[in-house]
DNA sequence: AATCCCCCCAACCGCGCAAAT
DNA sequence: AATTTGCGCGGTTGGGGGGAT
């Protein structure tokens, strides 16, 4: 990071101007920035086709939009990404995957492009290195969940009915490029086992909270009985419905909180009604970073995401 | 000092969704 | 209902910077 934005970037780096199809491509000049900035400040965001035409800039609507959102917008935060921001990105990425725009929404002043770049250039390696270290150091990770982690699981249950998160999962299901796992017979069976398949679609099972993970996450109830402690029913204002917490499954049951968006339309419909804006993940994470780490370790560690079945991912306190 | 090579990041591209027609 | 248009998102590209050799 630490790019000097004060000077003209067109003269320093990036692609040279290109004039194919009558449109300028490549790095924006200071003059173009000024024209675009003035126009948007005057007329507001949106209608990017009009912006491109009205300003006389030989830029595509897309290019104008991107330039504004990633560079010219006044509230964009410049400079290095702080440690706590870094931590948050890693957590959110674990939770949301490559949903850069969603992650960016939780980091005021940061753009999805910036976060995406930062992830690919810095954080990805950091996480991988840390992950491989743990793969070497710990053969079998047994985590005793604390009261805190149980608490954080409840919290996660509340986090998960996140419209955007789930919608994103849906998009992945539909995506031709990266199709999501279709629910296997096995996972479908486990779904039946899970009370999230309740005929009452207004009842949302807390175990479905792991739907944010695009993989089946099996773990034994016996090992984490406290993870299934029922929570107080909450009331969703948007839905006008009571959200009922899950009852603890029978001892010995193996829970597969598969991606519900792919296999359970009824539940999916009800979850779609949640409004992401009602929850600011960062606030919750900020409040409960420590416990969230433990929960991460418990779930991710036990469940072998990243194909490292025996070895857990590290908690974030281990990173860096 | 010169060259090589990797890193960083701005910007482009293709795709999908939703609203408008 | 079908088509068009606009927008947003995530993946990828490409070139300058700067450290390594």
UniProtKB/TrEMBL annotation:
Pfam families: Myb_DNA-binding. Transmembrane segments: none annotated. InterPro entries: Homeodomain-like_sf (IPR009057), Myb_dom (IPR017930), Myb_TF_plants (IPR015495), SANT/Myb (IPR001005). Keywords: DNA-binding, Nucleus, Repeat, Transcription, Transcription regulation. GO terms for molecular function: DNA binding. One of its GO terms (cellular component) is nucleus. Residues 20-72, 73-127 form the HTH myb-type domain. It is found in: Nucleus. The keyword DNA damage does not apply. The keyword Disulfide bond does not apply. PROSITE patterns: HTH_MYB, MYB_LIKE. Residues 20-72, 73-123 form the Myb-like domain. This is Uncharacterized protein. It comes from Vitis rotundifolia. The lineage of its organism: Eukaryota, Viridiplantae, Streptophyta, Embryophyta, Tracheophyta.
């Amino acid at each position: 990071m630490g790019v000097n934005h004060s000077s003209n970037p067109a003269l320093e780096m990036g692609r040279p101007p290109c004039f194919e199809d009558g449109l300028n491509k490549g790095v924006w000049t200071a003059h173009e920035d000024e024209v675009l900035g003035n126009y948007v400040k005057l007329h507001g965001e949106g209608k990017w086709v009009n912006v491109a035409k009205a300003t006389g800039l030989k830029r595509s609507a897309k290019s104008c939009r991107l330039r504004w959102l990633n560079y010219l917008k006044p509230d964009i935060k410049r400079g290095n990404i702080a440690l706590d921001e870094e931590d948050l990105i890693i957590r959110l990425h674990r939770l949301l995957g490559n949903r850069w725009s969603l992650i960016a929404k939780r980091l005021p002043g940061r753009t999805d492009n910036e976060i995406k770049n930062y992830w690919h250039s810095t954080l990805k390696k950091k996480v991988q290195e840390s992950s491989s270290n743990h793969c070497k150091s710990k053969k079998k990770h047994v985590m005793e969940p604390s009261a805190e982690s149980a608490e954080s699981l409840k919290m996660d249950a509340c986090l998960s009915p996140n419209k955007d998160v789930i919608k994103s999962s849906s998009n992945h299901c539909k995506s031709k490029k990266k199709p999501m796992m279709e629910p296997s017979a096995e996972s479908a069976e486990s779904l039946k086992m899970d009370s999230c398949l309740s005929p009452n679609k207004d009842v949302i099972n807390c175990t479905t909270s792991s739907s944010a993970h695009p993989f089946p996450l099996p773990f034994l109830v016996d090992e984490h009985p406290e993870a299934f402690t029922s929570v107080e029913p909450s009331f969703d204002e948007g839905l006008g419905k009571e959200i009922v917490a899950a009852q603890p499954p029978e001892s010995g049951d193996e829970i597969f909180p598969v991606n519900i968006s792919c296999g359970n339309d009824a539940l999916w419909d009800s979850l779609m009604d949640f409004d992401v804006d009602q929850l600011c993940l960062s606030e919750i994470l900020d409040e409960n970073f420590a416990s969230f780490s433990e929960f991460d370790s418990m779930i991710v560690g036990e469940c072998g995401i990243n194909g490292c079945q025996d070895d857990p991912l590290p908690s974030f306190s281990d990173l860096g």
